[in-house]
Amino acid sequence: MGVKGWLGHKLKTKKTSLELYQATIAGIVDTFLAKNEGDIEKTNADIKDLGERMTATLLMGYAEKMKEHAPSFEKFKDTLSLAYKFYSGNSFTDAVYDPQRKVIRFEDDNCFICRGITLSDDLKDLKYCSVVPGIFTGVMKLRGFPADCNQIECKAAGGQTCAYELVSFE
Ligand SMILES: [Zn+2]
Questions:
Q1: Domain of 24: which CATH number?
Q2: Among the four residues 27, 78, 126, 154, which has the most C-beta atoms within 10 Å?
Q3: Are 41 and 127 within 8 A, CB to CB?
Q4: Domain-located, residue 6
Q5: Within 13 Å of residue 103, how many CA atoms lie on the same side as its CB?
């Protein structure tokens, strides 16, 4: 079964409230900040790690199938865009593969996690929606691709968009 097959199967899943998810993320980020005594770098790492740990649950039952259908790196532009739309209901504003840098850049001007959230100035370096690049990194690890995804810009922290860059180390 190809990627469309397993996503198609998952379309039968019931949706959970996006507000509930946003509130959950806000509570978790607040907990990380308190635990790290306001250390932004440590908190950013914790948010991304949370995303990586979410991957196993999100892809439960599909990991083995995914391994059988390892596409080329640039195909992850479409695969991850489709998965993002399926889980968030949002489409990326832009997704571009740069073959020179071996980087796929994803942008969402209307990020479902950051929507309606404006962080205070002392939190402007926070990568608030880093669960997304965390999940993408987790997917690449599951697929056995040497790659890493990081947040480049965050709208909640005052950016123009929420941007993530997936870098291939192949
Ligand atoms: Zn965001």
A1: 3.30.1380.20
A2: 154
A3: no
A4: no
A5: 12
Within a domain: 3: no
Tally of domains in the chain:
1
Mind listing the pLDDT tens digit for each residue in 145-169?
899 999 999 999 999 999 999 999 9
Burial letters 31-55, b for 16+ CB under 10 A, else e: ebbeeeeeebeebbbbbbbbbbebb
Q: How far is the CA of 114 from the centre of ligand 1 (A)?
A: 4
Q: Look up the pTM and report it.
A: 0.87
Distance 131 CA to ligand 1 centre (A): 9
Which structural domain range is residue 64 located in?
Answer: 16-168
Lowest mean pLDDT among 36-40, 62-66, 109-113: 62-66
User: Is residue 102 situated within a structural domain?
Assistant: yes
Q: How far is the centre of ligand 1, averaged over its atoms, from the C-alpha of 1 (Å)?
A: 32
- pLDDT of res. 70: 56
pLDDT exceeds 60 at position 6: no
Question: How many angstroms is it from 137 CA to the middle of ligand 1?
Answer: 16
Interval between CA 157 and ligand 1 midpoint (Å)? 9
The 3-state DSSP class for residue 151 equals strand
Residue 99 lies in a domain: yes
